Amino acid sequence: MEATAMGHADSHGHGHQPTGLMRWMTTTNHKDIGTMYLWFSFAMFIVGGCMAMTIRAELFQPGLQLLEPERFNQMTTLHGLIMVFGAIMPAFVGFANWMIPMQIGAADMAFGRLNNWSFWLLIPASILLVTSLFVPGGAPAAGWTLYPPLSVQLGMGMDLAIFAVHILGISSILGSINIITTILNLRAPGMTMMKLPMFAWTWLITAFLIIAVMPVFAGAVTMLLTDRHFGTTFFSASGGGDPVLFQHVFWFFGHPEVYIVILPGFGVVSQVISAFSRKPLFGYASMVYATASIAILSFFVWGHHMYTVGMPVTGQLYFMYATMLIAIPTGVKVFNWISTMWRGALTFETPMLFSLGFIFLFTMGGFSGLVLAMTPVDVQMQDTYYVVAHFHYTMVAGALFSAFAGAYYWLPKWTGHMYDETLGKIHFWLTMIFFNMTFFVQHFLGLAGMPRRIPDYALQFAEFNKISSIGAFGLGLSQLLFLYVVIKCIKGGPKAEAKSWDGATGLEWDLPSPAPYHTWETQPLVK
Amino acid sequence: MSDSLMKPQQDSSDRSNLRLGLLLGAVALTLFFGYILRYWLMGR
């Protein structure tokens, strides 16, 4: 096995690396590609964040200030698409690229060139999405869900978005094929499945989810495209089709997509909490089974996104109970994280703070999810700001907080330097305070009936909207501090040890910091 | 381990990767075309 690993390294002819831009264009190294994914996702996070702040600037007070209603809807649509497909998903693929080979003792990902291609596909896709703002008719304005009939009627910006979604889908499917093959085929001797770090486990399950549902979404937008240009009527009642069919197909993709976004975050948090509690993860096997259960259940609950389309009461009841079932494996995970901390030697460095923030806020998002899962409640609350608050508590507090936890946790391994802990903690507290300022009040707005995706609102909503907008500007600006901390850490700082955190476990901490360009050319033996 | 013994292991690992990769790709393509065909040929 040792000789095999060496042979693998030799066969690539290392030592003849191109430099400059060509290095990044042609690289097959998992660390290079991981770095590109992470920077790309941060850039998209800034672009999507600027759109969010534009939305909040418009909503700062009643009336129309900055945007025409069409532009406002274009902003909400692009904000959603860019954050989900351009920021969060690539961020976790970046983590996967960097960490999974190091965690499982593999020299690289299974398909190096495919890996390079998966990343570079993102660039034209993101350009298509952003430039759709400047074509006649503007960007798609049907919401990130792209519901017909509006999405069939919109201008050519919609075609650009459909093409972008195709490319993004191909990129994620290729990335997932790579991750599954790497984890299943390239583990070091002794690294059995039940010894895999939780991050690798959650990514393995996520990758299967992506392969199962991304093609469905690609199929849905392809049907949308043929409805728009080739005379089909999949989603048009006038030709025997049904716009509600799109909603079914979309949410068959869309609900698992929520878990695609959040499951790798669960993996990061599991490892961070274990490290900073200085205890092994409580209930490792149950964590694996809970993750798999969440993934499987996610295929059977899509109808809770469309209770009000006119489905039979029996259908509503089924989706309501099935949705509530998800609380069980999610609860297992939350209680396991708490049990891991129980009587642990806790310290509260930035990664741990973000992980604790994650548990607190994600649990709140989970509970508002249970509220919305109840059909009679959802009939009142659907399409209000309560829903907006709910999914930002799961997506931002879930995916983003766990991504920050992972970034701070592994920054020493990536850069070879410790980041500025004080600034990291300030970043956490600013993010925590401004996040809640932005989104907590939106629960009240939703309960009072403020509809989402509308640029104007009645006077009684003014105060909470003002608070929310100030919070959003603060939240956006706080992220510049994160950028500063990362750049400062790359440029210098106290030297990081191989094992940067004394409670950290896993193969990646056996490697020097920064991790060498090629690692595990000789596969480790896991006992 | 000598060079001659190294090579076949490398090849078999590559083959196994390729097999799994192609299988997963085939699943993705089947789902993509399957959904479209299902709604095209059988209606909603």
Largest interface: A-B, 36 and 28 residues
Series of secondary-structure elements of chain A, N-terminal to C-terminal? HHHHHHHHHHHHHHHHHH
Write the element-wise H/E pattern of chain B from the N-terminal end onward: H
Distance between the termini of chain B: 60 Å
Q: Roughly what percent helix of chain B?
A: over 70%
User: What is the SS-derived class of chain A?
Assistant: mainly alpha
Classification by helices and strands of chain B: mainly alpha
Count of DSSP strands of chain B: 0
- Strand tally of chain A is 0
Summarize the structure.
Chain A has 527 residues and is mostly helical.
Describe this structure in words.
The complex is a heterodimer of chains A (527) and B (44). Chain A has 527 residues and is an all-alpha fold. Chain A has a single domain (26-510), classed as Cytochrome c oxidase-like, subunit I domain (Cytochrome C Oxidase, Chain A, Up-down Bundle). Chain A has 18 helices and no strands. Chain A has helices at residues 2-11, 21-26, 30-58, 69-104, 112-120, 122-131, 150-153, 156-185, 198-229, 243-277, 284-297, 313-325, 327-341, 350-373, 375-381, 385-415, 421-447, 462-491. Chain A is globular. Chain A starts with a helix and ends in a 36-residue tail after the last helix. Chain B is an all-alpha fold and 44 residues long. In chain B, 91% of the residues lie in helices and 0% in strands. Chain B contains one helix and no strands. Chain B has one helix at residues 3-42. In chain B, 16% of the residues are buried. The interface between A and B is medium-sized, with 36 and 28 residues.
Key terms for this structure?
heterodimer; A: Cytochrome C Oxidase, Chain A; globular; B: mainly alpha; disordered N terminus
Walk me through the topology.
The complex is a heterodimer of chains A (527) and B (44).
Chain A: H1 2-11, H2 21-26, H3 30-58, H4 69-104, H5 112-120, H6 122-131, H7 150-153, H8 156-185, H9 198-229, H10 243-277, H11 284-297, H12 313-325, H13 327-341, H14 350-373, H15 375-381, H16 385-415, H17 421-447, H18 462-491
Helix pairs in contact in A: 3-4, 3-5, 3-18, 4-6, 4-8, 4-10, 4-16, 5-8, 6-8, 8-9, 9-10, 9-11, 10-13, 10-14, 10-16, 11-13, 14-16, 14-17, 16-17, 17-18
Chain B: H1 3-42
